[in-house]
Amino acid sequence: MTNYRPLPQVAATAAKDTTGQNTGNWTSTFDVSNFPDVNTFEVYHMTVNNVTVLGSATIQLRGKIFSTVTADLSGTNEWDPSQPMIVNAGDTLYYFWNYAASGTPPVATVWLRYDADLPQNTYRGMLWAGGTWYRPSRRSSSAAPARRERGCSSTTPASLTGT
How far is the C-alpha of 17 from the C-alpha of 25, rounded, in Å? Predict the structure, then answer.
């Protein structure tokens, strides 16, 4: 059975495109500046709001189209997949909106979780969160780490990075 732990939901307000892939239009970006510091996690739900009526976006991960979204008549929509999007540390997720960057920018929000039993998310029974290894509390089922493991490095062990 999967040992999912919740991560905070993350919202990204679109800005005028700076990637060169959506020139002149809005682009919402999720990257290391707003994604959690976890080696592998999942996007299991997404919403969009403040979107121009029937405006749409192409959702791209690792340079590949993952999905698309079109806003309804109220400028919102949501995505609840049967297969969640798997994201790795360092990945960038883009929403490339199909309309000009003027007026109110659209906002994309992603709901995240991670599997605490994945080897890349654990090390000697500890969890990787916020750039530090933690030993989870046995009394709590919350995602927040209980205490930092004494003497542990705050970097990923070489055995988990392949270096």
Answer: 6
